Amino acid sequence: MIAITGLSYHDTVGTHLIQDVPSDRLFESVCLYNERVMGPAHAVPVTDLAVRSALFNRTPSHLAIPIDVQPWTEDTPSPKNKPGHTSLAGQPFTVRPPVEQLTAAADVLNSCSKIAICAGAGARGAGDLVEQVADTLGAPVVKAGLGKDAVPDDSPYVTGGMGLIGTRPSHAAFEECDGFLIIGSATPYHEFWPEPGQARAVQIDINADRIARRYPVEVGLVGDSTTVLRELVPLLERHTDRSFLERAQQGVADYWAMHREQAADHRRPMRPQTVVEALTDALPDGAIVCGDADTVTAWSARLRLRRGMQFSFSGTLCSMGALPYALGAQIAHPDRPVIAFTGDGSLSMGELASLAQHRLPITVVVLRNDSLALEIWEQNALLGNPQFGNDLHPVDFAAVAEACGVRRIRLDDPADAPTALAEAIVHRGPVVVEAIVDPHEAPFGESLLQTHAQHITQAYAAGERDRRPMAANLLEPRRVAMSPAVQSVQDDLQSFT
Ligand SMILES: Cc1ncc(C[n+]2csc(CCOP(=O)(O)OP(=O)(O)O)c2C)c(N)n1
Ligand SMILES: [Mg+2]
What we know:
This protein has 20 helices and 15 strands. It is an alpha/beta fold.
C-alpha cells in the first residue's frame, strides 16, 4: 500500500498555520518508507523506492507532498539525481537457508513427540506445504489472526485461531506440546504460545529480525515459507504416533459442536454465532472476507473458510474498519465476491456512501449491538474495571444504507439468518445486512486466561452494570466445560447471576 497525503505549503510547514500537520511524522510508526516530496525531480526516485519498499518489505509506504509542490512541473535535478538511476526492477526473495540449518531444524522436530504448528501471515501461499508438514509430524495447525487464510478451516489439521480470539483446542495444543514450529508469525498473542523452555522450537520467517522475537527458538530458518518448507519436508520423519493430533481433532469437533449449538439457540437479540454460522454457509467460492478490529475479530475468526478464500483485517495495529479493506479488495478484484464483516461502531466511521458511489457489489454484514462491545470485555477482563463509556447512540444502519443508495436487509430473527445472508450474497449490487445481536455475548469466553477470569469477577464485584447477563452468558455449561479459566471463577460468577 502506498499512502499519498498532502502537506501545507513548502515554505510554511512548521509555522503553525491552518492544517499544519506533519503527516510524515504522523505515519512514522506505521510506514517503513515515509518521505516528503520536495519537487518533481525528487518525486521520481522516492516513488520508485516507495513502491519497492511496499513490494519487497511488505509494509506500507507513505509520500507527503506539500500543496504548492503538487502542480510543479519544472524542476532541475541535482547532480546526484541522475535521471533513470532507480527503477522498479527487482527480484522476489528466494533466500534459502544453508543445509546445516535445515538439518538442525529437522533434527529438533524429529526429536519431539507432540508438535504444534503456528501459521501466521507468512504462511500464506504455502498452505499445501504446511498441511504436508502437519501430516508428516502428526501436528495440529493453529492459525494466528492474519494466517487465517493460509490453511483452509476445513483442513483436518486446523484447530482454528489462537489468542483471545482463539479456540480451546488451539490453546490445548500449545499447553501440551513439546515441539513448536512457527511459520511466518510474530503474533502479539504470544502469551498463549507454549511457555518458554517448554517446547523445542523452530521458526521460519522471511525477516531475520523476527526470529526468536517472541519465542526462544533453537533454530531459525530465514526465507520465504514456501521455499523453506519445500527444503524441510524431505528431511522430516513421519510420526507414527498420531495421538496428539487425534486429541486436537476431538477438541476441534467438541468446539464446533458447542459453536453450532450456540448458533442454533434462537434467542433474541440474536447471538453473533448465529450470523457466523449462516455466513459460513453462505460464503461463495473465492470469497474475500474483510474482518474488523472489535468483537467481530473474534466472530470472524470463527468463520470457516474453504480453500481459495481470502481473509484480512487490521491485525497488529487493530484499527477498526472492515469496509475500507473491502473497498480496496473489491477494486483490486472486481470479479470476486467481497464481504465486509463489521462492527456498528466501526461502520459509523463512514464509507457507506463510497460503496454506492463506486457501485461496488460488496456485501456488508454489520453486527449491531449499539455498543463498543469489545471495549466492555477489555475493560472487564484486561483491566478489572466495570465498563465505562461504551454505549453507542442507536443508529438505524438499514435506513442509513438506503439513504446512501445501498440495498438494506434487516436481520433480527435468528431463523432468517440463512436466507438473509444467502440473499445478500447473490445480490448484484452493494448491500448492507444489519444483524441485531446480543451485546452481552462473550467474544472470548472459551479463550480467557486465568488472570482475565479473575479480572472479570473483580469488575463484576466493583458493580459492572451488565454483570447479570454477562455472567449468565459465561456460565453456559458447554463453555464452562471447555474453559479452565471460567471453571476457576464459576462460583463467583454464579453469585452475580
Ligand atoms: C480506529 C480505532 N479507534 C478505536 C479503537 C479501539 N477500539 C477497539 S474495539 C472498539 C469498539 C468497537 O466497537 P464496534 O465496531 O461497535 O464492534 P463491537 O466490539 O461492538 O462488536 C474500539 C473503540 C480501534 N481499535 N481502532
Ligand atoms: Mg458494536
